[in-house]
Design goal:
Blueprint (H helix, E strand, L loop, with lengths): L3 E2 L1 H31 L5 H24 L3 H15 L6 E2 L10
Parallel strand pairs: 1-2
Length: 102
């Protein structure tokens, strides 16, 4: 098994971040819409908007959980180093990234 942190790895993680951010924005928009419209919409519409916002929060949590933490990456690197007996199996790309977790 080779744990290669290359552009494909970061591309996938960036997609998870994008989806998580998208669901956060959509949840905030649903709450804003409910508050902004106030009495102009019925109570059933408020309930639906808040339920959709809750669903978006759950989706945010699901996509945020897919982003590996630094601890998980270090654990995987240590396991692979232990299995191989050398450090050559773990390959890093030399790109310094902002806001990365691994």
């Amino acid at each position: 098994m080779i744990f290669k942190k290359d552009w494909g790895y970061y591309f996938e993680i960036d997609f998870y971040r994008l989806f998580a951010f998208q669901y956060l924005i959509m949840a905030l928009l649903m709450v804003f819409l409910s508050i902004h419209r106030g009495a102009a919409i019925g109570i059933h519409a408020h309930i639906i908007l808040w339920l959709i916002a809750g669903l978006f929060i759950f989706m945010l949590q699901a996509f945020a959980a897919l982003i590996p933490t630094r601890k998980e990456c270090e654990l995987l690197e240590n396991v692979l180093k232990t299995q191989s007996g050398t450090g050559d199996i773990v390959v890093h790309s030399g790109i310094k990234r902002l806001f990365r977790r691994c």
